[in-house]
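R.M. (postdoc): so does anyone remember the format we settled on? I'll just put the structure tokens first.
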């Protein structure tokens, strides 16, 4: 039997939980819309810098990121069993669809190759190091991929069998050598793009603490949203008003001057609070009795 005839050795199915490196949760590297764009707003807070550009395929989106999350989970699954891992993953599309709650219809299969094209065509320039190493050049999320298919005997159409995808060294180092790998709630895949980013930030920063707070403008930049601040605040307010805003977490948009006037005997401020002064309070739903706004630590400007 020739090498071409040998059966593929699959890394799927995923039997463990969905996981990812914390760095991929804290910072945004992906477009939050399906509208094609060739670059994202540059993030630069004086310490961390992230610049994302692409070719004509467009910047990889937060939906494309699900492929990376799935492969990160496969890697952690193998490592937990003491098995060797490499940068290349071979898996079935059906298992990816199962894990990420995607209906395995024709349109789902058609989204695979464009997603891989965007992941390969997107270039990230950042000073964030992984595994104790960094790079002054750019990198793409996927360095190579192959889509294996067969022909339907009747229609002649391609039927996807499996995928082989090689991830970049930057991400591989993060997953192999980084000490902070976090588990996703399965409900993550049901969320909107904004809710997904809010969940990742809450998951990355709450940890063992019950809550934290962050400035509205700082959160907008961390999320990766380019909407005006007024609309961003409105979107957060609508999410916060839900009975269960996010899996495992809740949030509130808070006027900081009202924080200082919780004593109802003091007058309520009458002038309008500047938008940039608003805070967003995140808390764990399972520790809500410990989550107090006045004691919530504020997220530092830089978190590497």
């Amino acid at each position: 039997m020739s090498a071409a005839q040998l059966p593929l050795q699959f890394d799927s199915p995923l039997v463990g939980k969905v996981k990812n490196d914390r760095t991929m949760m804290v910072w945004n590297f992906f477009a939050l819309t399906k509208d094609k764009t060739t670059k994202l707003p540059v993030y630069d807070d004086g310490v961390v810098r992230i610049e994302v550009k692409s070719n004509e395929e467009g910047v990889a989106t937060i939906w494309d990121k699900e492929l990376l999350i799935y492969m990160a989970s496969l890697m952690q699954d193998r490592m937990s069993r003491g098995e060797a891992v490499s940068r290349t993953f071979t898996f079935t599309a059906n298992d990816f669809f199962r894990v990420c709650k995607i209906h395995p219809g024709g349109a789902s299969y058609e989204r695979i190759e464009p997603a891989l094209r965007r992941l390969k065509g997107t270039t990230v320039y950042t000073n964030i190091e992984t595994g104790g190493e960094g790079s002054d050049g750019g990198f793409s999320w996927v360095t190579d991929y192959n889509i294996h298919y067969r022909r339907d005997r009747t229609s002649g159409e391609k039927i996807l069998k499996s995928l082989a995808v090689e991830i970049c060294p930057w991400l591989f180092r993060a997953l192999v050598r980084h000490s902070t790998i976090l588990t996703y709630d399965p409900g993550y895949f049901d969320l909107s793009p904004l809710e997904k980013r809010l969940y990742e930030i809450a998951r990355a920063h709450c940890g063992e603490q019950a809550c934290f707070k962050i400035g509205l403008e700082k959160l907008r930049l961390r999320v990766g949203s380019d909407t005006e601040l007024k609309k961003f605040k409105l979107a957060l307010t609508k999410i916060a008003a839900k009975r269960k805003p996010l899996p495992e977490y809740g949030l509130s948009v808070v006027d900081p001057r009202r924080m200082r006037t919780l004593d109802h005997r003091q007058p309520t401020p009458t002038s309008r609070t500047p938008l940039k002064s608003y805070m967003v309070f995140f808390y764990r739903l399972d520790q809500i009795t410990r989550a107090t706004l006045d004691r919530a630590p504020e997220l530092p400007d830089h978190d590497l």
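R.M.: ...and that's the designed sequence above, right after the tokens. Also worth knowing: The first strand starts at residue 19 and ends at 21. Residues 1-7 have pLDDT under 50 and may be disordered.
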